[in-house]
Amino acid sequence: MPLLSADAYRASLRDGRSVFYRGERVPDVTAHPELSVGVELAALDYELAHDPDHRPLAVAKDPESGEEISAYYALPRSPDDLLARSRLIDLGTERGGTIPPLIKEIGTDALFALLRLLEGEPLAKAKAFHRHCADGDLALAVAQTDAKGDRSRPPHAQEDPDLYLRVVSESREGIVVRGAKVHTSASANAHELIVLPTRAMGPDDGDYSVSFAVPMATRGLNLYVSPFSGGERNAFEFPLSHRAKMLESLTVFDDVLVPWDRVFLCRQPQLAGPLALGFVEYHRFTAVSYKLALLDAFVGAAASIAEMNGVAGAGHVRDKLAQLVSYAETVRALTEMAALRARIDDRGIAYPDPMTVNMAKYTFATGYHRAVAWVQECAGGLLVTGPGAEDWASPQVRPVLEKFFRAAAPAEARLRMMHLIADLTARDFGGYHAVLAMHAEGSVEAEKMQILRSYAAGPALARARKFAGID
Question: Of 86, 130, 141, 384, which has the highest C-beta tally within 10 A?
Answer without folding.
Answer: 141
